[in-house]
Specification:
alpha/beta; seven-stranded parallel sheet; Rossmann fold; 44% helix
């Protein structure tokens, strides 16, 4: 049931590809909570996805932008202000891609040109977006920025490859910009480290079903579904979290602080 948490707020939501995307679910819930927003994604992702359906369902405008292209980001934030009638109260960064992971290159055999793409698309793009928004005065006083991350930024998950480095960069950028935007404009910047989630991007990681099932067995509450991650993002966009910033927040059912569980131990216990 909607509670009007974002009534009157304006935002920009990146990364909605299809109805499996966390960004898609954030958009649906933001709409239900009273927000108006612009949807954005890279041109190639928009051709692959179904973003027009989401725009129609939520009454949203779409502005295409490559998050690694500064000129396109400048145009995104200028266009968003025009369509929304002012600066954005919230921004979701839900962007990630690794050519190395997609093409099966392991961490000890990376293609470095692809590695640069991973860091740019999945990490540096947040810095690019916030720099463009800052220079374009596109974020409202007291606004909120949320970037989606994963615990591989802190712990080794071998098959996550160079995406782990990108997520570590992403989380550092949330702190760097969180300080500056907080001091000058009261804007909060946080990252959310979500459980393994069956999205198009997540399912593209080798051995993802193993990731998912292990986390499920290790988490006291189980893996957090995409819908609940969306609810958490809405709370971070709302005025209920006005003094929360520069944090990486684990939305993972307790996985990040659980040492072991009986379910996992049972797989390594020898009877006798």
């Amino acid at each position: 049931m909607a509670n009007g948490l974002l009534k009157g707020k304006r935002g920009i939501i990146s990364g909605a590809l299809n109805d499996q995307s966390i960004a898609w679910k954030v958009a649906e819930l933001a709409h239900a909570e009273g927000a108006t927003f612009v949807l954005t994604n890279a041109p190639v992702a928009m051709r692959m996805g179904e973003i027009n359906k989401l725009a129609e369902a939520t009454g949203s405008a779409i502005i295409s932008a490559d998050a690694t292209n500064d000129a396109e980001l400048d145009a995104l934030f200028a266009g968003a202000q025009e369509k929304l009638g002012g600066p954005a109260d919230f921004l979701l960064h839900s962007i990630g891609m690794s050519p190395n992971v997609r093409k099966g290159r392991t961490y000890d055999n990376l293609n470095y040109e692809w590695y640069k793409q991973t860091l740019d698309v999945s990490g540096m793009s947040l810095h690019r977006m916030l720099q463009a928004a800052y220079k374009g005065k596109a974020l409202a006083q007291g606004g909120s920025v949320v970037a989606l991350s994963y615990i591989a930024a802190q712990r080794v998950f071998p098959d996550y490859g160079d995406m782990a480095d990108a997520k570590a960069l992403l989380e550092s950028i949330t702190r760097g910009w969180g300080y500056r935007l907080g001091k000058e404009h009261g804007v909060r910047v946080n990252s959310v480290s979500q459980s393994p989630t069956w999205t198009t991007a997540g399912a593209g990681v080798k051995g993802f079903d193993g990731f998912f099932n292990f986390a499920q067995a290790m988490s006291p509450l189980g893996n957090a579904p995409a819908e609940d991650c969306a609810r958490f993002c809405i709370a971070l966009f709302s005025d209920l979290t006005r003094f929360l910033t520069m944090q990486n927040l684990y939305h993972d059912g307790g996985f990040s602080t659980t040492g072991v569980t009986p379910e996992v131990m049972a797989k390594f216990t020898t009877e006798g």
